[in-house]
Design brief:
There is one protein chain. The chain has 357 residues and is of the alpha/beta class. It has two domains: 6-129 and 309-326, 2-Layer Sandwich (Nucleotidyltransferase, domain 5); 137-304, 2-Layer Sandwich (Nucleotidyltransferase, domain 5), CATH 3.30.420.40. The chain has helices spanning 41-44, 52-74, 93-110, 119-125, 169-179, 187-195, 219-229, 235-267, 285-297, 315-326; strands spanning 6-11, 16-24, 30-39, 83-89, 114-118, 137-142, 147-154, 157-163, 274-278, 301-303. The strands form two sheets. A five-stranded mixed sheet has the order 3-2-1-4-5, with helices on both faces. A five-stranded mixed sheet has the order 8-7-6-9-10. Helix 2 (52-74) runs parallel beside helix 3 (93-110). The protein binds 5'-O-[(R)-(carboxyoxy)(hydroxy)phosphoryl]adenosine and zinc ion. Residues 14, 143-145, 170, 173-174, 185, 187-188, 190-191, 279-281, 283-284, 311-312 line the site of 5'-O-[(R)-(carboxyoxy)(hydroxy)phosphoryl]adenosine (KG4).
Length: 357
Amino acid sequence: MKKNAIILGIETSCDETAAAILEENNKGKPNLLSNIVSSQEEVHKKFGGVVPELAARSHINKIDIIVNKAIKESGKKLEDIDAIAVTAGPGLIVCLSVGLNFAKALAMSLKKPFIAVNHLEGHALSPKIITDLKYPYLLLLISGGHTQYLLVKNLGKYIRLGTTIDDALGEAFDKTAKLLGIKFPGGPFIEKYAIKGNPNRFILPKPIINRGGCNLSFAGLKTAVLKISKTLRNKKDKYDLAASFQKTIDEILYNKTKIAFNEFKKISSKKNSPFVIAGGVAANKNIRDLLERLSLKENFKPIFPPQNLCGDNAAMIAMVGLERFKLKKFSKLHHPAKPRWPLDEKAVFLKGAGVKL
Ligand code: KG4
Ligand code: ZN
């Protein structure tokens, strides 16, 4: 009898040390057996952002414990694992190197295939862990480091439709939170503050809202929030600014997603296509509700990973690993850590001063 594939996933690209075991069931569907995520929030909180050296040290201290825990919780043994999938980029090179080297050593000693995974592809495929999702589909990736609309043609095949030309959406949330006095990473708290505030109190800019296709920009918004934050006097003012910020983001995403829908339709004839919204910011309930409504109106099928798979995790890395394993798409052991690794390698780099849209 053919043995079902069992994949160990490892993730250390930024400030989460994570490991997961995913097994293919008899119907060829993924079955998540364990998913361990150890966050470094406490380590970086007082610095207002991730400190690479401290993050790498923490990964080194924890990696074997987390991997062992994932294996133990899965009920499997180390020898049962068929392949080791690990994030090789994009991310902080000192952090990526920890997971990557650990995975290479393990693969070598177990004599099992090694699969170097693009972290962004992990987010892109994350809903597949719990739901049936067929290529092609439209993806909105909203995380702490990336904000992009992509056409996911197939495993490893992406066409970028739009991208942020400056800050990532998660970054905009975190910076706004910081200006409201919330400790890093404050993104999730904006949502909580926003519920208590008046979304119409402050008028904030929506950069490039009427140009640049479905490319996005958040830098001007951040500057406006900075100016207003200096005038705030009490908690109510903070709630109002959070609510106004959330409303502005909602409006930007609403407009840009409509454009992305049209761009997608120009290159794909798929009717009622899935629209995957993934990455840390996809945990935001406002954004989820808004994009769900818009998708249904525009004949797209909205798909969100469950809340616990929106942020960084190794289950999504194992998911990519499983798809690659089935196609025997393994990596060489000298595969490098890639701090920059776009999903669409052909897309023009659109960041920094002087970008023309
Ligand atoms: O995907 P992720 O865990 O890490 C990266 O790959 O970047 O995303 C983290 C980002 C952070 O900026 C965090 O503040 C943001 O996702 N985030 C949220 C929410 N939950 C996490 N932003 C807004 N609302 C949330 N509920
Ligand atoms: Zn991520």
